[in-house]
Amino acid sequence: MNKLINKSWISIILWGVILTVVLVTMPDMGKLVRDKGQAEIDANYSYSIAQNILKELDHVSKDDNVLDTIMVYHNKEKLSQENFNLIKEKVSNLESNKEKYGVKKVLNVFTNKDLEDQVISEDKTTLLVPISIEKQDRTVDEIREKISSLLKVDGVECYSKARILFWRTL
Q1: What is the pLDDT of residues 101-117, one digit of tens each?
Q2: Residue scoring higher pLDDT (44 or 153)
Q3: CATH number attached to the domain at 46-167
Q4: Which residues are listed as membrane-spanning (predicted)?
Q5: At what angle do helices 140-151 and 81-96 cross, to 10 degrees?
Q6: Could you tell me which of 56, 71, 49, 66 has the C-alpha nearest to residue 164?
């Protein structure tokens, strides 16, 4: 029993020494940030890509009644050429009827090939369509339902979730 108690104390003392050494030798994070600069997220991460897409929409006026949303199209296998054609038709229809639906801007990958790398996944399973919409007298849910129903494509999972909607004033 004495041996067990002695070994326990040795273990506690050893952990205390290790903790003290780690705390004393740990670098000063404030100094590291001042010397090296703030850490940045790589441009290849989805967060950075989403921020770039939203920056594309930023030239629309910073009006409190403008809402940025992203319509997401997804197919587990791969979006087929037929899927792309149907999506193109829906997006073009929305773009040509902007006033009717209260749309300020649509980033259309089919008319702007520069966006292709940002809005189509490498494996061609997902396509994003960023849209700026005037809120008018509608709720966020009403806008989401209207846009989702207008842009729905059979055979492709498509959605615009409330968590994807961003108010410009936030």
Answers
A1: 888 888 888 888 888 88
A2: 153
A3: 3.30.70
A4: 6-26
A5: 130
A6: 71
Which pTM was predicted?
0.61
CA dihedral of 147, 150, 151, 157, whole degrees rounded to 10: 90
Domain residue spans of the chain: 2-36, 46-167
Separation in Å, CA 40 to CA 36, 102, 156: 11, 36, 35
Q: What angle do CA 111, 113, 115 make, to 5 degrees?
A: 105
Q: Which two tokens stand for residue 135?
A: 């809120």
Question: Do 96 and 156 form a contact (C-beta atoms < 8 A)?
Answer: no
**Cα atoms in the 13 Å half-sphere on the side-chain side of 85:** 3
Per-residue 3-state assignment (H helix, E strand, C coil) for 6-67: HHHHHHHHHHHHHHHHHHHHCCCHHHHHHHHCCCCCCCCCHHHHHHHHHHHHCCCCCCCCEE
